[in-house]
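Margin note from the TA: students keep mixing up input and output lines. Inputs are the sequences; the output is the structure of the whole complex. Example:
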Amino acid sequence: MALAVFNTLSRQLENFVPLDPHGKKVGLYCCGPTIHDFAHIGNFRTFVFADLMRRYLAYSGYEVKHVMNITDVEDKIIRRVREAGTSLKDYTAKYEAAFLEDLKTLACLPATDMPRATEHIPEIIELVEKLIERGIAYKAVDGSVYFSIEKYRGCGCTYGQLVKLNFEEMRQGERVSSDEYEKESIADFALWKARVPEDGQVFWDSPWGQGRPGWHIECSAMSMKSLGNSFDLHLGGEDLMFPHHEDEIAQSEGAGVQEAGKRFVKYWMHGAHLLVEGKKMAKSLGNFFTLRDLLAKGYAGREIRYLFISAHYREQFNFTLEGLESARAAIRRLDECLGKLREIAGSTPVQPADPALLEKIRAELDHDLNVSGAWGEVFIFVSQTNKSLAAGEINEVRASALLSFWAEADKVFGLGTGALPSEVPAEFQDLLDQRQAARKAKDFKRSDQIRDELKAKGWVIEDTPKGPKLKKV
Ligand code: AMP
Ligand code: ZN
């Protein structure tokens, strides 16, 4: 079987065939964060989805170029910069750093390329100029430049490829200057926004006077700069389908820069939203969590990552703290099983993984990243392994092969290994080390003292072939 993905363009499952004639290179763009604040867990659900897709493509043998832009200038950011009374750079640097740190916590691989909008103003201007040349964009009286939906459609292009739009019922002819708007008020949207006093020092020179780019054109310019005018995959959360992605298509295809017969993007994939306790996350509802809020509650990045990738990306996901507790329990089961295998395998040379086991995981993921199916296989593996372990049927070679299976599968899941629940807290491990040192120095009085102290705290020392270990009484 080969990878098939649900393409929002066709609303169908399609076999994934890269544009690269050699079938090797894949270009993937996922709209990055708008760095106006700490990112919330909804945002991270989408970024973890993109990471999973990128990892699975790489696992499937593709050479993936993963581009994630940083939106460091748009309406919301400018409002916040004004409120904070700082410079754009000072304001966004803090949130960009926090975002990258959070991605790391969630074991998301760093994107191959991470363009910032503010560093692509010349490319943005060039793209707007092309649209003006082609008669699809025009300068309005206030000095802003707008994209003309009517002219675009007049060229035989379709506005409304990702979402169905009913032009009869829409209020046409109006213009929208804000970056976010609803389908009902579809209208010419801003490519370049003329400077207004509220923009403060956030402006650049352009052929149309001072101003700044609209949000949508930023992604068109950055994605085509990094990946070429036609590329394979464009990902994002479902809220971006309209207007953001629809506008990206209009701008990029409207500029006529693609080779004949080629689209701007071949496959569009959209992740469904994360809700909290069944409701849209909102600060006003008190159900709003940043990743940092969950870390402060004592959850680990890998537990949160597991929770996100335990459900299919196109399913709406209902986040609850109970769900996170179940994720913790599931990972613990897996960790415990792997821990036992590691103990048995010891320093046995790495053995090849069973291809049949891996094939089962692949068959599930090939089907539009069916993670539930893949986890089903992983947990069958865990229970079978536990049974064999209990029956004493696993020798060190077999244990090593089973560990190799997980190591391979985890290239996609990215959970890594965590501290096992039975793992010894650092303070007791320190005591054990001190006892070893005392024994080495033949200070048996001290070594016995430490042993007794450990025992009083509930830990006994066990001698194993790999040296002494602590075990909970
Ligand atoms: P933003 O920083 O607002 O531009 O959003 C970054 C990414 O997070 C985009 O791909 C959004 O579609 C996605 N996103 C925003 N809210 C949610 C949510 N509640 N659940 C899943 N993804 C979301
Ligand atoms: Zn975008």
